[in-house]
Amino acid sequence: GENVEQHPSTLSVQEGDSAVIKCTYSDSASNYFPWYKQELGKRPQLIIDIRSNVGEKKDQRIAVTLNKTAKHFSLHITETQPEDSAVYFCAATGTYKYIFGTGTRLKVLA
Amino acid sequence: DAGITQSPRHKVTETGTPVTLRCHQTENHRYMYWYRQDPGHGLRLIHYSYGVKDTDKGEVSDGYSVSRSKTEDFLLTLESATSSQTSVYFCAISEDRTYGYTFGSGTRLTVV
Asked: How far apart (Å, rounded) are the C-alpha atoms in residues B108 and A52?
């Protein structure tokens, strides 16, 4: 069935360093790949997304890359700051709905 | 706030009672979703709707039913609440399945 694997489950980085979170999807028909950030006690919020006809997208300190051949996509956060600490979820489109990854808890250490 | 509201925000209920959670949107989006979030499980889809009166099951639909009689409202009913349904429930809306979701603020449900 449709599946999205996300790694790592937890990630600690020093403030100012980069963080990378990787996801692999199984449905070759998936064509939309969003990333959500969820701060403690809050709702998930869309931070960046990419469509299958694009290989990379950037928005200030965050970027997403997509490798359709290998069926994986990654979130890159540069110059991490304490406010980047949160849980990040990737997702890939399936039939009518997303398939979410299980989340990565990012801790940025001051 | 972002055109989507959930009610109630918090609820404590007893085992065996029916419970209805409401999701209301003002964005006129076609797609609406109910997720539950539990530690270690991420976001799991309960039910979703792709139009008025058009609904389907997600991966954890047992013990839940939904209704969508109007574009703006999507109701989630726990037919007979159990302790395993203690969770945070999020509603989400989307213009299309290949667009970003906007999530509601969530409902924290405790079944005692």
From this structure: 35
Q: Which residue out of A4, A31, A36, A43 would a mutagenesis test of the B interface target, given it has the greatest number of B Cβ atoms within 10 Å?
A: A43
Q: A93 to chain B: which residues are within 8 Å by CB?
A: 97-98
pLDDT in tens, A43-96: 999 999 999 888 999 999 999 999 999 999 999 999 999 999 999 999 998 776
Contact A48, A56 (CB under 8 A): no
A13 contacts A109 by C-beta, under 8 angstroms: yes
**How does pLDDT run across B47-102, given as a tens digit for each residue?**
999 999 999 999 899 999 999 999 999 999 999 999 999 999 999 999 987 889 99
Angle at Cα B30 formed by Cα B26 and Cα B33, nearest 5°? 85
Helices then strands, counting H and E runs in chain B, come out as 0, 11
Give the Cα separation of A13 and A81 in Å (integer): 10
A43 touches B: beta carbon within 8 Å = yes
